[in-house]
Amino acid sequence: MTRTLYALCGTDRTRPFSPHVWKTKLSLAHKGLGFDVAPVGFTEIPKLEQGVTKIVPLLRDGDKLVSDSFDIALYLEHAYADRPTLFGGEGGKAMARFVEGWSQMTLHPAIGRIAILDIHDSLEPVDQTYFRQSREQRFGRSLEATAEAGKADIETFSMKLEPLRHMLKFQPFIGGDGPLFADYIVFGALQWARIVSPHRLLTAGDVVSDWFERCLDLYNGLGRSVTAA
Question: InterPro entries per the record (predicted)?
Fold first, then answer.
């Protein structure tokens, strides 16, 4: 069966950067499922698969199309129930929902402000126009003003990781002895920052940095297949 993962990229089509795509890449690897990556720019997304989605990742698995990283994880868990679990049961699904909320409400906004100009500069011109218009509308100010505000986020970012730092004192992964989808959620956010921005948000020797390095090593170093900015 042919699997295709549509992944958001900039000018360099070998550097998918979406945090949500990275969740799905590790989810597929976790299940031991092969896939091809189809790179797309922001303005190409509405044209995919006859306009089935406005977001990526979008996974084509045979004749099945699934968008949204969490929905894809749920689909993979059900469709490939005989393969390693992404959640470890209903409690793991509930935990992943909480982790996703924390990541998207706490980590994503800060990374978005820190890296906003780096993301813009990595895009094709047509996508730069879309990105500027959509993000300036979202933030209510220019990209440059948002980036200026992001300087403060660099200084305070480590504090946002304190809940994760505390938990990792007791276990090597959010999922316990091994990774689950909850790990891939947070990894996706930090991988996004690693790929698009030269700012280093993790400190060597920190338990969070050690966890991130373990995640980069998973599945024959899948996370390292794209180098840091």
Answer: Glutathione-S-Trfase_C_sf (IPR036282), Glutathione_S-Trfase_N (IPR004045), GST_UstS-like_C (IPR054416), Thioredoxin-like_sf (IPR036249)
